[in-house]
Amino acid sequence: LDREEPNYFGAGPAQLPTSVLQKAAVDLINYKDLGLGIGEISHRSKDATEVINNSKEHLRKLLSVPDTHEVFFMQGGGTTGFSSLATNLMTAYVGATGTVAPGGYLVTGSWSQKAEEEAARLRLKTEVIFDSRKFDTNGKFGSIPDESKWADKINGKKFSYVYLCENETVHGVEWPSLPKCLEDREDIEIVADLSSDILSRKVDISKYGVIMAGAQKNIGLAGLTLYIIKKSILENISKAEANDELLAKLNVPVTPIAFDYPIVVKNNSAYNTIPIFTLHIMDLVFQNLLEHGGVEHQEKENNQKAEILYGALDKSSDFYNLPVDPKCRSKMNVVFTLKKDGLDDLFLKEAAAEKLTGLKGHRSVGGFRASIYNAVSVQSVEKLAKFATDFAQKHSK
Ligand code: PLP
What we know:
It is built from twelve helices and twelve strands. By secondary structure, it is of the alpha/beta class. It folds into two domains: about 30-290, Type I PLP-dependent aspartate aminotransferase-like (Major domain) (Aspartate Aminotransferase, domain 2), CATH 3.40.640; about 295-395, Aspartate Aminotransferase, domain 1. The strands form three sheets. It has a seven-stranded mixed sheet with strand order 1-9-8-7-4-2-3, with helices on both faces. The mean pLDDT is about 95. Pyridoxal-5'-phosphate binds near residues 12, 79, 165 and 195. GO terms for molecular function: O-phospho-L-serine:2-oxoglutarate aminotransferase activity; pyridoxal phosphate binding. Pfam families: Aminotran_5 (PF00266). Its cofactor is pyridoxal 5'-phosphate.
């Protein structure tokens, strides 16, 4: 089972390490010589439980998850993640305070925007703390306003949680670090979508109430989402759920049972049928990362890849337009357009001829997007950077 190493820059589902897929392919057919594949056995069997426990342990190691936090997995993706976060976190706030407060949203791109819209659709109270388009000279997503411009919006206010998307996959905008004014608020739970940058860089888990990440970019196949949650939040949800009358009075919707975090945790991520093959692949990705220097090494490599690609595009800045403020350029999704009209199709065609694929920008933004997730090699990025430089030289006149 082999393949030529791809140079694939798709935004998701994305490329995974070939060695992981080779091992997974064998295990899909005959896991540990059971005569059955890993996806064919009961999700409550000893072997499946071992996969769940190992995945949790490996993730804990990779991210130094403290004892204050629990790790669990749930069917679904990023959308299931932000829908379920909204009801669970509002419920937790009721458990902690006996009241409701809006969920606050820092809107820096289409995923945080969608998360806020979804919470509002569920008839939960929300507040957009800022929408970065209002601070942007072009009125577009592509920058993150300085804290001094919005910190007063949270001063003295209560929020059941504050939500942000650490890496906006469509717009290529990534928070360089958590905003200090939020970190300083011990009474606010920071809830973050790390779907497209989990395990790409070190993060301090103790600062987060919840981290959620869909698998299909840096850590696996579509269909599974991971969560890292403060244990006190789980306790507060259970406390509120024991008082259904109060939840009804405060108009807080009941979370569907398969997405109720305390229930999922109590059942070790197997309340309902967890896709165990998908989780096994995630664990193989974790193990692969542990064997190759962990997140620290991966972060260095990701920095190097981002420097190579942004460096090449910046050098040809007469030809390429990079719409994102350098202060918050994503190290995962490099978004760019051509300044000259009429060359987009040719760019993709000539790139494909060099076996560089998956470069088309998101349909809502246009242009190009090179996703350089963990599994994309430095060599692939160098090849793309050279192609971009050559293409600019060839078509500049
Ligand atoms: N959040 C982010 C940052 C994403 O990039 C995506 C999808 O690309 C989502 C959420 C939604 O994920 P899904 O399609 O798995 O629901």
